[in-house]
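Morning run. Coffee first, then this:
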Amino acid sequence: MTAVTKNEGTADVIRILLAIILPPVGVFFEVGLGLHFWLNILLTLFGYIPGIIHAVWVILRK
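And here it is:
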């Protein structure tokens, strides 16, 4: 088990805030232009809340 450094924790908080404001942006900063990014865009188009839930899940699952 590794300890989370202060910078990693701060970066996660910034990504989560971005995920709440614009979910695809938070996912992009976490995984780039991969499958999760495009899935998040689709979920955000279908509903803002599903996009947020998916974005936060992608950010916190690491």
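The mean pLDDT is 88. Good start to the day.
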